[in-house]
Design a protein that fits this description.
Blueprint (H helix, E strand, L loop, with lengths): L2 H36 L2 H24 E4 L3 E7 L8 E7 L2 E4 L7 E7 L3 E5 L11 E3 L2 E4 L5 E12 L2 H7 L5 H19 L10 H19 L4 E12 L2 H93 L3 H14 L19 H7 L7
Parallel strand pairs: 6-7
Antiparallel strand pairs: 1-4, 2-3, 2-5, 6-9, 8-9, 9-10
Length: about 375
């Protein structure tokens, strides 16, 4: 051993001894400080009795009461009928503290879950729910003879814990002895009615899952279990079968694609024909409208010309009538006077007129009768 190693070991030994001495000094200080308190009358008369009472109460609660959680049911079984009748009590205990004499196993409280439970048929823990119990995938033979592994989840709950306890037992027997023996055979029965290709048809697959749920409820309701849902999450074929199915699906899709294209071509031709017929019908209607407008315009012009001609005829007749009436008025009584008045108006424009006033052709401008006779105007009597 080298000198440096020896010196390091001596230093560690000295450090350990000094640490032990410090711990002894601290323990001595605590004991010297607590000595008067522990040895005092208050501690013996008050603290110790309270501690004894608290410990006794705790032990009494542990021995005589059981707590049922918020998501639990409780079923009491009496072995020694001290405070109740022997056997399984039909009362279902809800959340809270309940009296159960545990001393000597006189009474026992068996707890069952109240909330939703999940049973997963799957191959891996990662694909299952955290709270679910895991079983192997359901190995199902399809109606056309192939095998498929189905990942499914059975969602259920306990509806009557008394029936569960009396018919299936305590603990997790409601699952291992109740659901598991029924679930996989019913899944094989219902999903096995599908063909290999029908597994890809989600409506049909869902309908079979609903049928499985109904059959499970028919089997398990008498045991106090209620199945809420059966969910088919995934399914796996062998690689060869999967490849064959995919190839067939691709061929089917190609056929469907060709059929769809043919239907699309027919529909497009029908659409074009319908468009052409519509355009022709529109053109015909437009021509009919133009012809109708032309006819109405001609009728309007004819009506207007007719009415104008009738109006012109009426105006001309009125003018002729006016002329006739004027002529008749000029030939009637007083016409001579009117002529004289007109002649007087003529005379108004003359400054000087020289007429013979004597002889047979003499004219007296003041003698109107003479002037009328001279102008060959006749007076009607």
């Amino acid at each position: 051993m080298s000198r440096s190693e020896a010196m390091a070991r001596d230093h560690d030994r000295d450090s350990s001894s000094s640490a032990a001495e410090r711990a002894q000094r601290i323990a001595g200080s605590i004991a010297s400080a607590l000595g008067p308190i522990l040895g005092g009358g208050f501690f013996r008369s008050v603290v110790i009795p309270l501690a004894v009472i608290a410990i006794g109460a705790k032990l009494f609660m542990l021995a005589c009461f059981t707590y049922v959680g918020p998501n639990e049911y409780g079923i009491k079984v009496v072995q020694l009928p001290i405070l109740g009748s022997r056997g399984v009590h039909s009362q279902v205990y809800a959340t809270g503290f309940h009296r159960v004499l545990k001393i000597g196993n006189a009474e026992q409280m068996f707890l069952f879950p109240r909330d939703i439970q999940v049973l997963d048929f799957t191959g891996t823990r990662e694909e299952a729910a955290k709270e679910a119990d895991i079983r192997k995938p359901a190995h199902i033979q399809t109606s056309d003879g192939f095998f498929v592994d189905v990942d499914a989840s059975v969602i259920y709950r306990i509806s009557d814990p008394y029936k569960v306890f009396t018919k299936l037992g305590a603990g997790q027997l409601f699952e291992s002895a109740g659901i598991v023996p029924k679930a996989e055979p019913i899944l094989k029965q219902t999903l096995g009615e599908l063909t290999t290709e029908e597994f890809y048809d989600s409506p049909k697959r869902h309908a079979k899952a609903e049928l499985a749920r109904d059959l499970l409820n028919k089997e398990l309701n008498p045991y106090g279990l209620q199945i809420d849902q059966v969910l088919v999450r995934y399914f796996r074929y062998s690689e060869e079968i999967q490849r064959n199915i995919e190839e067939k699906k691709l061929k089917d899709q190609l056929v469907f694609k060709n059929q769809a294209e043919a239907r699309a071509a027919r529909e497009e031709a029908q659409l074009k024909r319908a468009v052409q017929e519509g355009e022709a019908a529109v053109a015909i209607k437009l021509q009919e409208g133009a012809a109708y407008i032309t006819t109405k315009d001609a009728e309007k012009d004819l009506y207007a010309r007719k009415k104008h001609a009738e109006a012109d005829l009426l105006i001309k007749l009125a003018d002729a009538k006016k002329t006739q009436l004027r002529s008749e008025s000029l030939q009637g009584t007083g016409s001579a006077r009117m002529v004289g008045l007109k002649m007087a108006e003529v005379y108004k424009g003359l400054d000087v007129i020289v007429l013979p006033s004597d002889g047979p052709n003499g004219i007296n401008p003041l003698n109107l009768d003479q002037i009328v006779k001279t102008l060959n105007a006749k007076e009607k009597e």
